[in-house]
Amino acid sequence: MTKKTAAAPRLAEVLAIVLGTDEIPLRLKAWDGSEAGPAGAPVIEFRSRRALRRMLWSPGQLGLSRAYVAGDIDAPGNLFASFAALSSAGKFAQPGPFRAPTAREFGTILKNAALLGALGPNPAPPPEEAKIVRAGRRHTRTRDAAAISHHYDVGNDFYALVLGPSMVYSCAVWEDEGTGLEAAQYAKIDLVCRKLGLRRGMRVLDVGCGWGSFAVRAAQNFGVDVVGVTLSGEQAAMAGKRVADAGLTDRVSIRVQDYRDVTDGPFDAISSIGMSEHVGREQMPEYVARLRGLLRPGGRLLNHAISWNAGPTPPDPNSFIPRYVFPDGEMLGLAEMVGALESGGLEVLDVEALRRHYALTLRAWVRNLEDHWSEAAHLAGEGRARVWRLYMAASALGFESRLTGVNQILVQRPGGDEPPLRRTGWV
User: 261 and 149, same structural domain?
Assistant: First the structure.
């Protein structure tokens, strides 16, 4: 009788090649009940041969991500511990495009796949992978609208489960680690309002207004009139309802509109919170020029954006997040963003780094998602819920490892009133 080949040791050999390590930093459980890897290590479970086939065809982050989204693999224990072990191992710990296996390494993967009966055609990507055409010119109005719709038009009820009552989808500002998510999000909005110097009667543009949280709070607490623009129809519908429920329709206007099409300036201040990551490096001069043109002399712009902290090597454009989460998104380094704002004729008044704050925010969102997992999977589909779980957990680890950061950059159009002598005017 032929002895059956245990799957886990073979999978461990494949995974070590994919990760670029001599030994895997995980306890690996296979579909046949076999196990391999160090005892007590974080657990990754391979549920089917299809997971191995995905690694054969895409031996890197993308193959593993597709397998996770499809449910072919799972992290049944401590999610953050399992993902941290993966992301800190070998090639995964290096920023930039993923190095493909050598011919000899690929031969080893192929042999193990054959022994385990995993050979076959390339499995179709999970349907949650972005369908946006990945050719042609990026950041046209049409393609940007499709990219935004892919990410934000997932369902307002789903986002409500993840984000909580504040409905704020950007880094919160935490007084300490015990601060609640809602309090931290409202503290962030208030901080932005103070940095912008908002006063009663001012007219404010909120670029990428989301579900209207900044617009409503700024109007209620600071007495300003707000125009909020977003490319997401679902966001705009909910934001408009929240404005109406707050009795602010005479002071807050929500539009489905590209920022490049806003022509009814000038504005006394502009907030751009978590939006400029969608603009793109090549379009950044136009972004700065258009927002500067919409500001009155002396008006302030607050640009709140994720930054790439890993040096000159950019993120891999074919990795999980560009394909599943933020199609066409681009993170600029802090120096590059400051340079773009200054080159566009804006004076930098203040820069505040909030990297640790975003890690806390993302962990809170993951807790919300896991606490409401069944409902979230029902609302958006299990694959989409798994995308969000993977991306938010991996992003939290990225901020904790200093691979990424997030910064609020406050700038002013020259002319008009001088800013305060000290930043105590807005802290």
Answer: yes
